[in-house]
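Thought: the user wants the 3D structure for the chain below. I'll pass the sequence to the structure tool as-is, report back what it returns, then summarize two notable features.
Action: structure_tool
Action Input:
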Amino acid sequence: MAPDNRPRQPSSPLGRFGETIGRMAGRRTNLALLVLLAGALATGPLSFALGSGWARWAVVAHGVLALGIVLLTPWKSVIARRGLRRRRAGAPASVAFAVLVVVALGTGVGHATGLLRTLGPVTAMQLHVGSALVALPFGVWHVLARRVRPPRTDLSRRTLLRSGALAAGSLAAYGAVSGLVETALPGGGRRFTGSYERGSFRPDLMPVTQWLRDSIPAIDAVAWRLEVRTGHATRTLTMADLDRIARPIRAVLDCTGGWFAEQEWTGVRVDRLLDSSRSRSILARSVTGYERRYPLADAGHLWVVTRMAGEPLSAGHGGPVRIVAPGRRGFWWVKWLERVELSDTPWWWQPPFPLT
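Observation:
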């Protein structure tokens, strides 16, 4: 068959106009998704880190942004199908990014509604966070490989109105979902951080969790000693020393795995152990090497705890001694404590979340 050498007919003005409109709509959708994903990436760690009432606003903002992404999914699916038909290099990485975002959205919604709490040995919250972290490098690559350069025409009154409509739609969707969760779904019993109650005042029912690679150590409570360092002075305390000056406290352990439990603890306030007048932070260290640094202002609110519900702490729950930090999330509650000390290093001179 002879090749068709006939000159191609130029596309009609209407066809070119349609293609231009399609490119503009695609660009604006991508820009909106980029803003929403960046916002979700910022509010997610905030809701994870805060243990006080401020966490509620971070959780709400995170949910609103996530539902905004869901609302844009139909438009993005059209753009994605068009891109896949072009067979561009790097398409598998873009597909992996999309799949991970879908997993993060699905597990996040499942946890928030209470319809998906666990999947085998992991919680929906752990999958939500894990898939978001794995998606991050794919997302950075996707943005750099397919850069969106918005022209000035995108900064128009119409674009502002559309952005407002998207924000209003996201807020309305969040309100509707929240109302449904509170009245008809199992997620209505969540704490303001988004966590579910597990084992309050029943230590035997409270989950046993560790931070990342920590495993439960075997510690002889009789031979155990707590090292207390204040400047150049160091002293050691036994369990009996702590029990003699211990007092009860009720506090909520809110784990980043998606659960919380309120318990009656018995322990000693850190400001009774340390004179914090000439230092910049308090360092608590576990026998596993795990450590966290606290502001000096926390000295009157941190506790070195030896008992829960009147009984010695089990190994899984941090025994023989752990830190109890009311108002802070679980990764601040250092288990298997071996040392507390004053430090000249500021408390914020550490990763916001432990890396190991």
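Final Answer: Structure generated. The chain has two domains: 13-191, 203-343. The CA atoms of residues 104 and 129 lie 7 Å apart.
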